[in-house]
Amino acid sequence: MLLEAIYHRPGQSYCYSYDEHTIHIRLRAKKNDLHTVSVLYGDKYDWDHTASVTELYKLASDEWFDYWQAEVAPLHLRLRYAFQLTDNEQSIWYTEKGFVKDKPHNPLTFFDFPFLWANEVLQPPAWVKDAVFYQIFPDRFANGDPSNDPESVRPWEASSPGPHDFYGGDLQGVLERLDYMSELGINAIYFTPLFAAKTNHKYDTTDYMKVDPQFGNTELLKSVVKACHDRGIRVMLDAVFNHCGYWFAPFQDVLVHGERSRYRDWFHIQSFPLTCAPRPSYHCFAFESHMPKLNTVHTEVRQYLLDVAQYWIRECDIDGWRLDVANEVDHEFWREFRKACKSLKPDFYILGEIWHDAMPWLQGDQFDAVMNYPVTEAILDFYAKNLINAEQFASQVNKLLADYPQQVNEATFTILGSHDTPRLLTVTQDERKMKLAVLFQFSFLGAPCIYYGDEIGMTGGEDPDCRKPMIWDVSQQNRSLYSFYQQLITMRTSKRALQAGAYRIIYAKKQQLVVERKHDHEQVFICFNNSEEAITFTVAGLKIASELCMLLGNGAFKQENDQLIISLPAYGWSLLHN
Length: 578
Ligand code: CA
Fold this sequence. Notes:
Blueprint: E1 15-17, E2 23-30, E3 36-42, H1 47-50, E4 52-55, E5 57-61, E6 65-72, E7 79-86, E8 91-95, E9 98-100, E10 111-113, E11 133-136, H2 171-176, H3 178-184, E12 188-191, E13 195-197, E14 205-211, H4 218-230, E15 234-239, H5 249-257, E16 284-285, E17 288-292, H6 299-316, E18 320-323, H7 331-344, E19 349-352, E20 369-370, H8 373-384, H9 390-403, H10 406-410, E21 413-415, H11 424-428, H12 431-443, E22 447-451, H13 479-494, H14 496-500, E23 502-509, E24 512-519, E25 522-529, E26 535-539, E27 549-553, E28 556-560, E29 563-568, E30 573-577
Parallel strand pairs: 11-12, 11-22, 12-15, 15-18, 18-19, 19-20, 21-22
Antiparallel strand pairs: 1-2, 2-6, 3-4, 3-7, 5-6, 7-8, 7-10, 8-9, 13-14, 16-17, 23-24, 24-25, 25-30, 26-29, 27-30, 28-29
Helix pairs in contact: 6-7, 8-9, 8-12, 12-13
The protein binds calcium ion (CA).
């Protein structure tokens, strides 16, 4: 037994409350090292009557480690616990004081979970599990009102956008295309910023309280949200609170009045007078002088942004904020932000843009979830770029699952491309490979998000090329790809196992992968052949509740006792269901 590899520490993803009654306990050990792991637990004030033992199961494995998990529901909401670890040769106990040979008797030496406070449980809104998002970049989605077009607007068909071009897309266009989105089947929209700003992407806000006149006005946004809600579609907006735009009035005041400006402390100014080049004399988003960083610890700034957050919930009844550059804003601000939003709408979704390990923001007091960039990267590396094989892919995904509490994974937000990255079809260069990536995205936990136009086969490299105007001419759309998306969305929004089921990669060898989703008696197997060779492979050791049928896909399968024999053509896939 490799004791050095064994790890547990209460809190974070190793011992946390999952809901008001349940605590999840995890332990990490060297891969394939332990035969069994069990946990001895009880109440510290009544050990003799409450002590009990539960076995952990292998939640996931990555390249180096196995992650074991147990779920317990202590009557008095308190836990003392120690692990018993067994391999071929020995059995050993693991407590907060370290490893001991004999069963420890003094619970004082055990790990401790002091009390399960219901108000401290991270409970992301339940609807996110069932959500399929559609990302809209408003200037490029649909132009429903030529009267609000910016000057020098480019013709919609001109498909080579420059970085500063405008195409005239707006909220009226979105309103008129809701039928399209309903037919596709999505049930949530994520808008990149809608508020007044100078650029076409609007990440340089000049007025947080105003819809950009190129897109419409508050009344129109209200109508869009209402029309969405009538169709069962939720709406998430982009909150750009890390920084404002150069033309934001308080920043302009500092430019004019310098050190005498009453807004001087709203920003992070290093020296007066303000200079923009070669590097700005104030902190910015990156070093972008037109995006000055806001000082969110300043009371007035904080109050202003909290008012903004609440204003759009109250005024337009939006359902979520996606937080831009979320990890560069102070934690205390996000704590107050959470309270402000949830006090108005308890099932409001708070989604952070964080590219790295986001555990510090996911402990119940700040975000519900983060954008799952590490999974995006793994999906693209495996399905699109052939940089890793199925085992490596499974390792990466499993490590991510083990890194976060289960409810975080269940509310995660998975994209395969956005306004910041080349389009999926351009990256994969092959519609079959693109479909495999999308199928994985839709079989994964949390909410998948489709970048507008991917579903009809739009292409585009790095931005601005990935921001071409939406193709509305049906003869120019890839309708078979659209049908594929439509079928997956129908599947996703109708099968409980795909929304709320337990998630397990049960097979990962060479270029073949099988995922199982299971909820109560419902079982779904999603099978992938990410190779140009047709193949037949066997997945053994399964527990299959009843006879399976193929819901979607190609190839064939045979079910024999605890085995599945799966045949798939080149880049084939299938979705089996009981
Ligand atoms: Ca317009």
